[in-house]
Amino acid sequence: MFEFLIALGVLLIIGILILMFRVEILVGVARKKDDTDPGSGSSNNVNAWLFILFALVGTALFLWYSFGEADRYTLPLASDHGFETDQLFNITMWITGVVFVITNIVLFYFSYRYRYRKGQKAVYYPHNNKLEVIWTVVPAIVMAVLIGKGLIVWGDIMEDAPDNSEVIEIMGYQFAWDVRYSGKDNEFGEYDYRNIDGANLFGLDLEDEGSYDDFSALEIHIPKGQTVLLKIRARDVLHSVFLPHFRVKMDAVPGMITQFKFVANKSTQEMRDELNDPEFNYELACTEVCGRGHFSMRKILVVDEPEDYAKWKEQQKAWLKLNPDYLSKVPENLRETAIVKAGLTKEDINSLEASLY
Amino acid sequence: MATEEINVVEEVGHEEHDHDHHGNFWTTYVFSTDHKTIAKQFLITGIFWALLGGILSVIFRLQLGFPESSIEWLRPFLGDWITGDGKLDPEFYLALVTMHGTIMVFFVLTAGLSGTFSNFLIPLQIGARDMASGFMNMLSYWFFFASSVVMFTSLFIETGPASGGWVIYPPLSALPQAVNGSGLGMTLWLVSMALFIVSTLLGGINYITTVINMRTKGMSFSKLPLTIWAFFLTAVIGLLSFPVLFSAALLLIFDRHFGTSFFLSDIYINGEALPNQGGSPILFQHLFWFLGHPEVYIVLLPALGITSEVISTNARKPIFGYYAMIGSMLAIGFLSFIVWAHHMFVTGMNPFLGSVFTILTLIIAVPSAIKVFNYITTLWGGNIRFTPGMMFSIGLVSFFISGGLTGIALGNSAVDIQLHDTYFVVAHFHLVMGSASFFGLMAGVYHWFPKMFGRMMSNKLGSIHFWLTFAGVYLVFFPMHYIGVAGFPRRYYSFTNFDTFNDFTDLNVLVSIAAIVTLAAQFIFLFNFFYSIFRGKLAPANPWGSTTLEWTTPRFPKHGNWPGEIPAVYRWPYDYSKPGADEDFIPQTVPYSETPESNTPAENEKIKLETNGDEIVVKQNGDSH
Question: What is the pTM of this model?
Fold first, then answer.
């Protein structure tokens, strides 16, 4: 009933508006309004003034929000290269911001200033080579500067990671992230997507010695002040690794490894202190649409002081230790190595043997 | 009112004796080969799609602006896409985003814009009786119609329409296991796009052929209105790039149905390792954006062409830098083919390519800047009449500036790392491509409505429509820049899962309300449009005082456009407010020999050419006005 009344009300209002529109036309016809000239009539001036009003209100809102709320929309920064990209972003925004305000204001001001007046004749001004050269060359120079700076920054970010980088593998799948560390041997085990099952999320190849001490973790830990090289892959569809506070983004592509190197320069604790927010955590988000749960692919990333990081790594248990059943997939001659590298204990092996026979 | 009625009667009486073509209802209105009718068919279909695309966007804006509130009241329309607790289904959210993008980019701003105005204006403005092939032109519309039917059908199937984003990146779009929309919905999407591409190519070949071959006497390329230049270049770009999308779609169909591995490799999904190996999802992105980027200009160039014409006419000034405008369109058209990978800076593409594409991308800013400065200088010293068409054109220039400038940030690969796939990108392309082109479309409709339907639209309603839409669009898209700088990713159903993105509910509410108001304002246009088709005031022959040829046709031109000879052309289309001339415009059909008072010495020289052996043309032209 209520909906019906609303619908009725809306219909009534529309009806009244149409009626008013009709009456207005009829009054116009009756008054024999001269509208052979589209510029005549008061509405032309009203529109001209509205452009000025729009320019003023728009500029005021833009300046107010851009400067007034800058803290709110600026993400805190926690990486070395992020300083460069932020700086380039700010330079670009200052240049384009100034051009944005000036050109828009000129556009609206000219619209107002040169509004129709009876008997006024427009200036016949088809071209001016000097002006045209100026506004070809000036943007070209500005672009050249931005390109130059951009290429330098891009080159630095994308250059090869130093050999002593901390390599971490991140894998995206519907709808979560998983992370793999190379373990004590600093060597990632081979993998094959055909080995993947419910527990072996990475598809580790258990015939490869490198995989025995590889470990995974619920939270990503990285050391502060050291180059971290993310090796990124995906298991099913495209995902994208986005670490907003580190200005890091790279797609995760099935069948291909992508990478991104960066140096975190603020530990989680330092950021918590700085923001005065004890709950703060760095987050990893997905930025390539990947299906139903795209918006929920979150993983926490913790930046540790180097010594804490080393300690944390020490405490992590190898994947094989947590999944001793998979020892059965290790070739006979490598079992001993696997047991040692994975840090398996007697109990683990006993229970395993029980299951083997 | 009385005067209107009398006018109608007079007009009917007058037209009784000059219709040369007449057919039955089917050949006149449905399977018509008349470019004007086909243009109207494209326009009305485009309006239908625009409305649908707009409604879809408002539905997902409800989710983004008011994630807590129930949308149970939409259940009669959306059925099970509303979950048990009255929320939008997250997968349907993706489907809405996907269909909104597909509909707006292809069905509204490509077919609705190019299809309408290239068809309508090319023959009328170059002085031709129709397109080179009326039949192909008709096919072009009906392929578009078939494509529309298929796409529309996909909205109603059980597994839902395609939902992998309008860019349909595989593997998501290739695997029905990954998302429901990649089942039948995606198949229909691909079939629909294949038909759409056929339509675009049929249309494009026609536009190009017509412009090259069928210009009237005297209509050299340097006398073409900028609209025609824009439509011509758009058609060329489309002809070169759409086949690449076709090939990408074809390979995707192979991957989906015939077990090939062009785009698939090493995939484990739903507890199963797929046999596909060796394919590359990046390859698809290269193919897609090889169309996708030129597509941006396919959408934008016609709007810029329309704007050039409308601004010049209503500022009563020649367009500033006619040759620079053509040159910048040529440059944009050329560059549009070699910037595609700026959509792929962080996809894992070789970083060296990132550098190359940064350089090429930022170069586009130069011809774009030239166009903006030329528009602004055209306004300077004018005598501006704020017709709705003019206001929408000024709005377009404003959007082109605001949205174009953020492209300078995004085009720089280093800066793009952070901004890629955030709301900053959404803000950027909705302003520069979406809204600017939409405003071009609107400017065109308001400006050429009198020629299309022989009647006038209400200027007052047009002004209200403009101001609500203009303010609305800025309120929708400007706040998104801030949300994007804060890192908010696109295509997120909700932001509550992340502490980092747990802000800006206020801006999101504002954006959603603005979107609803903007959509509502479009109904003012719809009323104005359909009301005026039937009951608008009859249009004078040349309501805006334009110089171009279309205004030399009768109020209701028949198939063939001009009852007598096609008029010849003697001058460029921008002789507005020429010093010495009596009126503030001199139509293209007026020879220099008739305007000694306003000729420059160089133009006086041309008089000889006009009379030498061309007397007949001059005489007939004199008769026509």
Answer: 0.93
